[in-house]
Amino acid sequence: MPITLSDLTLDVPAALMALIEDASVTLAQFDTAVHHLGEQVHTLGPMSAVLLRTEATSSSQIEHLTVGAKNLAMELLHEGNSENAAVVVGNVRAMESALRLSADLNVENLLSMHKALLSAQPGRERYAGAFRSQLVWVGTDSYTPRGASFVGPQPELIDACMADLMLFLQRDDIPVLLQCALAHAQFETIHPFADGNGRTGRALIHAILRNKGLASHIVPPVSAGLLHETDQYFAALTAFREGDAAPLVSVFTQACQFAASSGMELITQLEAQLAHTKQLLAGVRRDAAVWRVVPHLAAQPIINSQYLQSAVGLTKPQAERALKTLARVGALTARNSAKRNVVWEHRGILDVLDAYAAGLRRQ
Prior knowledge:
It is a single chain. Helix 3 packs across helix 4 and helix 7 runs antiparallel to helix 8. Strands 3-5-4 form a 3-stranded antiparallel sheet. It is 60% helix and 3% strand. The chain is an all-alpha fold.
């Protein structure tokens, strides 16, 4: 029986409020810094996509869905064959949906986020975009809730609980990060879906951050911070359900601090890779189409001619020339030997993304 949040009176200790304020400032500064950097070097769109995909990948890894940068890039290129990568792409779509629908935090938009997520998961499509009608639990036995670490509320309670949660999100008398942490934990406690609750609940965090204006331009990799300290994250959710929200708020503020610091480091390393690529292209005329390709390599380090035509807007001849130029200067390496549909990779950017993911290995 989840508590009601919409009319809850909050008494936050001064020390915890200080953590919330510090993390809020750090997150806002990160959002501004990335936005300004993107404006200066014309890579805001691709860098935003990198951060969004990093968040989606980290959120999925918390659920034991692990995928490397190469497999994810291949799947986004429609050239992959990894089931995990296809599921993680579903999480990317859910994150994108969360940002599109962030202007109006309501049940209908939440269901749309969940539909985008679960529609990509084989065998779970029938549950996509609908509240559950059966009991759910978290535990090792899929046949009985006996011994489970958590049992969700009865399904007939979900509508009222979710209505209360949406009312809570309309409040403007609560620090945004505190509201995010409580709303996320409440969502996970309600566990409104048959599957995908964790990933949808973490996507909800970013809808709130965007709605409240704390992260207006980019997706800070908060799930990377939660993944870094998974045991503490799960313990904090349990403490919340037992009536103590302080551990949850503490873990959440730490995750936001980690998101800002690690996210900035990731972007700096990717910018260095792009700068090196531009140096390799130093002798190429400035009006060549290849220069339009370079910023996109950060978000999509594996490309082919079709991608450049659809995503960058190049003609087929322009795309072919750009790929040949990047290969000639050593920026791209062929992944296959096909005559017609050659797939190319930027190994430096893939190495940066894989190194970042390796530093987040599930504890």
